[in-house]
Design a protein that fits this description.
mainly alpha; 93% helix
Amino acid sequence: MTDKELRKLKRSELLDLLLYMRKELDELQEENENLRKQLKDSAENREMLEKIFKAVCTEEQKKESDV
């Protein structure tokens, strides 16, 4: 929307536009927060899997050296 178009809007239309933009901003912030949480959870799961993998590899190496 151009500046000229914005200036032609009535006050109520401007308020509606601001309300819509605020609602959209709130939704995007919530989505961003959820995505950050998923990313953090994924990183924590990856770290846990790496620890389990290392532990299993260590046990396998011990078994092989005992044979």
